[in-house]
Every structure is written in structure tokens, then in C-alpha cells.
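Exercise 3.2. Students should predict the tertiary structure of the chain below and write it as C-alpha cells, then compare their answer with the key that follows.

Predict this chain's 3D structure.
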Amino acid sequence: MNTYMRLPVTFVKGKGVWLWDDQGKRYLDALAGIAVCSLGHCHPKLVKAISEQAGMLIHTSNLYRIDKQEKLAHKLSLLSGMNKAFFCNSGAEANEAAIKLARLYGHNKGIDFPTIIVMEQSFHGRTMATLTASGSRKVQAGFEPLLTGFARVPFNDLEAITQVAAHNKNIVAILVEPYQGEGGINVPQVSYLKGLRQICDKNGWLLMLDEVQCGIGRSGKWFAFQHSGIVPDVITLAKGLGSGVPIGACLAGNIAGEVFKPGNHASTFGGNPLACTAAITTLNVIEEEDLMSNAMEQGDFMRKTFQTQLEDVEDVMEIRGQGLMIGIELSKPCGDLVKDALKKELLINVTLDKVIRLLPSLVLKRSEAEQMVNTVSTLIREF
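Answer key:
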């Protein structure tokens, strides 16, 4: 169906942060499948692991125990501080699970119309519940009537949440991205997540963090919330978790982890042996190759170098991000830069009309980071 404005290129091979098209041209990939290919393209350990698993067993069903799923759940629990995991196939499904969990949590407390606080400029997916939760009219337009049960406030504004709490006694949870991705790579003040944790504790709400784009090492830590020193009640994951093999997860802590009972939620494909093998291998390689430190090091280098190279360009409003999530906001719409970059054999993205978004793989080398910065800086000057 005509759901994508596809660029005129077809890729047939990849290695590390490089892709080759069907004409043999090589491209530097600064997008990594939109924060998906954590280990780059065709990492040998990932290729070996999923090839071997495919030769043994691809799928059974969640009607039975799945050894690889249990191992992945245990690993994610150790890394995150959560103690339960539900596996699905995408970030939207992970957020759908979190929304259902919050509503059931509210009903169990006797709240007939449970409401979740969500943020402006957020993005949580394109199912009916997750597009309603998203703070984007562009995503929602044409799909009305939207769902009820959401209260929207500005991102990075604790006072707005306090005001909503004073007038709405049906609030059961807050759903927020620690760093907004689709909304323009927005990084809140350091005290923001701590403040949200305090508000949720005071009111008996669940703090649910959408780490679909910023999680799994991209920020320089396993999870973005770990930069703030807090522990949430629910974490949603996908994108970089399987390095290109579709898998999502909804992790939950002590209280939230006990909400779902048999029959409350399910997934046919979620957490099958092949997908869990990809995720376990991804996590192991990130540890073995110290890719979180690399994400922090290369990301800091890129932002500082951009600041130096673009400091005299008036139309550059802000350069921001954390780890290998980088946003360069211009003063005007710059969507044409995506095609301009393609002509220079570079893959980038523009979100929110005027924010250049860079999400390279965690295996990025310094020479490749330098090439990305130089090419993007040249493109911005030409634009």
C-alpha cells in the first residue's frame, strides 16, 4: 500500500555502518534502520546465532515454555531492575501492552475510567491506542474518533502534571519517553524523571517509560532512565533490542508485574526462539564490545564537532542529544536534506519538519563519525 514516501534506492548488502545498493554504490548509514541495527549490519556473531537457531527451531507457541525467552527475560530483568517481561514484536505493541496494563491496574483499584498522562510531541506508535497517546496531530489525523483515557501535558513540565493531578482523580499512570525521538531528540532537564518518580509515588501511579528508541545502550547506558538514578514501574522496548529481528518487550516491576493474569494479554509470535536469540546475542555483544561506552564517546565527539563546525551558521538553532541520539534543529523545514544526503551516499532523517536526526549504529568508529559530521555540516551549509 502507498504508506511510505520511499527514496529511490534499494539496498542489497550491509556490513557495519555501511550499506550497498543494487548498483554497487556504498552508503554511510547514519540512521541504522531508525535506531534498530544496534550492532550494525550483519554482525558476524548475530548472523551465526540466528542461523544456528533457525536450523534448530524458529517458532513453537507461548502455549509452551520457551527456554530462550526465559533467558532473555532474566537478562533484561537483571539489567533494568524489573522482574517481569511480556514479549511482542514491535514498539507499538509494547506500548499497547503498557496502556492495557495501566488500565487494568486502575480498574483493580476501583477506578472506572482510568486515565494516563502523556506528553506533547511524543510518539508511541500507530495502533489506535498508541497513536492516541502520541502527541502528534499528523499521526492522528483521519483516524478519529480517538480513544478516551488520556490527559496531555507539555514535555519537561512537572508543574503541568501537578495541575492535572489536582483536577483529575482518575489518573493511574504517566507514559513518557525519557528522551523524545520522533518529537525532535528532546532531552529534558536532569531533575525531570526524578520529579515524575516522586509525583507517581505520592499519588500511587505507575511511571511507564517508553524506551523503544532511546533504550538498549543508545544513550550510553542500557536504559535512558539510568542517567537519572530512578527506577520506573514499566519499561517498553523494541527497535535496537533485536538488531533488526522484530522483537518488543514490556518490562514491569514489583507492583505492575503482577497486574496481568492468564488471558489478559497475548501474542502469537512474541518472544519466539528466533527473536529471543537475536535479542540475547545483541545484549551480549553490546557488553562484550563495550558498545555503550562507544555510543557515549562517539556521540559526545559528534555533538562537539558539530558545535564547532556550525557555530557561525545562523539557521542552526540547537544541537542536542545523548549518546548516539543526535538532533540538529534548523530555523526552517529541511526535509529536502534527506534526498541531498542520499546523493552524497549518506543516510539521514528529518523529523518534526526541521530537526536532522542521526541514529547511527553503536559500532560506529571515529573515522566514520568524522565523515558523518563533515558531510552533514557541508549539507547544512549548502542548504
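Discussion points: The chain has a mean pLDDT of 98. Residues 62 and 266 are 8 Å apart (CA to CA).
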